[in-house]
C-alpha cells in the first residue's frame, strides 16, 4: 500500500467515514491528527486529538500547523435546516480552507457528496464536468463547498480533490445502492488515491465502488489512481434485489417533503414605530 510522509489532519474523525479512514490510514501516514467537536481518545502515539468546532478558525489553523494535508469530512451529513447547513457545511468548509491557507498546508481533500447531482434522471450518466443539480439543501451546501475548494485552488494555489461520496455502508441495503454503494475498503482507497496523486491541482471525482449499474463516470477517479475493488452485486440483501425505480438519482432525498420537513419555521421580526 502507498506510504505517505508526514502527518495528516482528519476533520470529522468521530463520524462514520472518519472511523473508516482512521483505521484504514494507519498504515499509510506517519501520523493522524483527529479533529471533531465530539470527544475522541488517541489509540496510539501516532494519533493526536483536537476537540474543536469548525467555527474556531484560530484553533483550526493551530491544529493544522506542520501537517502534509487535510481530509475534511466534518459537517452535517444529511438534509437539515438550511441555516444550519449554511453555518456548518459552508462557513465551516470556508474555515477549513482558510486555516489550511494560513498554515501553509499543501493539499486538502474535501468530502463532497453524490447529492450535488442527485436531480439528474436515473437514465443519464453523470460526470463531474456536468452542471450541478442538487437534490436538496444538503446537496446545495456541498456544491457551495466545492466552489470554495475551487477558489482556494485557483486563487491561493492549494492542491485540492473533491470526492463526491456515494452510499458508504458496510453493505448495500436497498435497490438504490446497486448504483451508489461505496464499500469501506473502497472509501479508504479513494481517499488514499487523492492524497497520493502526483501533480494534483484541482480535481473532482465520484467515490463509488465498481457497481455494475453505476450512474457515474469512473474515469476521473481512475486518472487519479482510484481503482475500486468491490461491487454491490456481491452483496445482494435478498430476493427483492432490484435496480432503483426512482426517476432521479437522489431517490427519496429528492422529494419535496424530505427537505421541507426539516426546515425550522422562520419567525417574522416586527418593528414598532
Structural class: alpha/beta
How many separate helices? 8
Return the CATH topology: Rossmann fold
Radius of gyration: 19 Å
Overall 3D form: globular
Q: If you average the pLDDT, what whole number results?
A: 94
Low-confidence stretches: none
Q: What is the CATH class name?
A: Alpha Beta
Total number of strands: 9
Tell me the name of the CATH homologous superfamily.
NAD(P)-binding Rossmann-like Domain
Strand order of the largest sheet: 3-2-1-4-5-6-9
In angstroms, what separates the terminal alpha carbons? 70 Å
Which architecture would the CATH scheme give at its second level?
3-Layer(aba) Sandwich
Helix content: 25-40%
Strand content: 15-25%
What are the secondary-structure elements, in order, as H or E? Answer: EHEEHEHEHEEHEHEHH
Total count of domains:
1
For the sheet with most strands, the description reads: 7 strands, parallel
Could you explain the architecture of this structure?
45% of the residues are buried. Strand 5, helix 4 (137-156) and strand 6 form a beta-alpha-beta unit. The chain has a single domain, classed as Rossmann fold (3-Layer(aba) Sandwich), CATH 3.40.50.720. It is an alpha/beta fold and 273 residues long. 31% of the residues lie in helices and 18% in strands.
Amino acid at each position: 500500500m502507498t506510504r505517505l510522509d508526514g502527518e495528516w489532519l482528519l476533520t470529522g474523525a468521530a463520524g462514520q467515514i472518519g472511523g473508516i479512514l482512521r483505521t484504514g490510514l494507519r498504515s499509510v501516514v506517519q501520523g493522524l491528527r483527529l479533529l471533531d467537536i465530539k470527544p475522541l481518545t488517541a489509540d496510539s502515539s501516532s494519533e493526536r486529538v483536537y476537540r474543536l468546532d469548525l467555527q474556531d478558525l484560530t484553533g483550526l489553523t493551530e491544529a493544522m500547523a506542520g501537517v502534509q494535508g487535510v481530509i475534511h469530512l466534518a459537517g452535517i451529513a444529511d438534509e437539515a435546516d438550511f441555516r444550519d447547513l449554511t453555518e456548518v457545511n459552508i462557513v465551516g468548509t470556508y474555515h477549513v480552507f482558510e486555516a489550511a491557507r494560513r498554515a501553509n498546508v499543501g493539499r486538502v481533500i474535501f468530502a463532497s457528496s453524490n447529492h450535488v447531482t442527485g436531480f439528474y434522471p436515473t437514465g443519464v450518466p453523470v460526470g463531474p464536468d456536468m452542471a450541478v443539480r442538487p437534490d436538496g439543501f444538503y446537496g446545495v451546501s456541498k456544491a457551495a463547498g466545492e466552489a470554495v475548494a475551487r477558489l482556494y485552488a485557483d486563487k491561493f494555489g492549494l492542491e485540492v480533490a473533491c470526492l463526491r461520496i456515494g452510499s458508504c455502508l458496510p453493505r448495500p441495503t436497498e435497490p438504490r445502492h446497486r448504483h451508489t454503494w461505496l464499500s469501506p475498503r473502497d472509501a479508504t482507497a479513494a481517499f488514499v488515491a487523492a492524497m497520493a496523486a502526483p501533480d494534483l491541482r484541482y480535481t473532482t471525482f465520484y467515490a463509488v465502488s465498481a457497481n455494475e449499474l453505476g450512474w457515474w463516470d469512473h474515469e476521473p477517479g481512475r486518472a487519479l489512481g482510484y481503482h475500486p475493488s468491490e461491487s454491490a452485486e456481491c452483496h445482494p440483501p435478498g430476493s427483492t434485489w432490484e435496480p432503483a425505480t426512482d426517476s432521479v438519482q437522489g431517490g427519496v432525498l429528492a422529494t419535496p417533503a424530505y427537505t421541507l420537513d426539516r426546515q425550522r419555521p422562520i419567525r417574522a421580526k416586527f418593528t414598532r414605530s
